[in-house]
Amino acid sequence: MLEVDTESAGQRLDNFLIRHLKGVPKTHVYRIIRSGEVRLNKGRASADARVAAGDQVRLPPVRVSEKLAEKAERPVPAREFPILLEDEQLIAIDKPAGVAVHGGSGVSFGVIEQLRRARPEARFLELVHRLDRETSGILLVAKKRSALTRLQDQFRGRETGKTYLALVTGSWPANKKVIDTPLHKYLQADGERRVRVTTPDDPDAMRSITLVKLRRQLAPRPLAGLPAMSLLEVTIKTGRTHQIRVHLASQGHAIAGDDKYGDFELNKRLQKQGLRRMFLHAWRLQFDHPASGERLELRAELPPELADFVEGDHSHA
Question: What is the CATH number of domain 83-311?
């Protein structure tokens, strides 16, 4: 029997169990939730149920893989990240691709844990928002509780301006500027989160709005087997899981290098041309400073591996 502590309050049941059952394979955690062997306050619960402080979670006996348990016990390495802005209230970092923002599904640590380890004297460091693991770019971390709530209120109230740079397959029509298609979140059998477009009458539909501006068309590269591509400035008005990836793919223009919603055959050819990651970068962020109220605009330029690909410079690849 596990009791939910205040630290874990508000977490999803699957994430709570994955953290507590170090060394138990993720697929097994989802299996015992689905089969109803996990009881939350004596009742069955789904993987996305939120746990509250004091909740009782009953578990069946579970086998622990020694190898995974060992891995989970390894200390978090300290790491600093490139800083775009830092003051008493917040840190804005330029997150590299391939690093999760926090530990959880399948990774034992992310940006926030590494940052806390690198700054043991910091009393408070919390993520203001999230970026997908494969997305690079601007990520805000609050250094005070008051800054965290003020910034999160802005993200929730859609008072922030969030613009990404994305490279998509095909020629994006310059007059296509708004995607206003609802999204539906679901779990695959292995517990992986996925999102798909849906219709407004779907009871689980979440209204999602993406604005697109064509920045540049890239000509096909027939020798490398690459089609025409388009570099887009994408501004999101709602911050849904995988919103940009699913919205662009639903228009027939998947993001280059996207391993969940993209074109897998094309991704293989792109890797040979030096693009070994998803081409999605959180480029510009506008928000009000949590203390002064001043409107700020931060920019994180494209990282070299993305900029080089757009310029067609594969001499180093």
Answer: 3.30.2350.10
Residue 94: strand pairing partners: 138
Domain ranges of the chain: 2-68, 83-311
Class of domain 2-68: alpha beta
Over the stretch 219-246, which tens digit does the pLDDT of each residue have? Answer: 999 999 999 999 999 999 988 989 999 9
Q: pLDDT per residue over 24-65, tens digit each? A: 888 889 989 999 999 999 999 999 999 998 999 999 887 766
Do the domains at 2-68 and 83-311 have one common CATH topology? no
Q: Active site residue: 14, 55, 94, 132, which one? A: 132
31 CB contacts (<8 Å, ≥6 apart)?
Answer: none
How far apart CA 175 and CA 77 sit, in angstroms, is 47
Quick one: pLDDT band at residue 103, thresholds 50, 70, 90? confident
Our answer to whether residue 204 is catalytic in this structure is no
In whole angstroms, what is the distance from residue 251 CA to residue 262 CA? 12
Which residues in 100-111 are b (16+ Cβ under 10 Å) and which e?
bbbbbbeebbbb
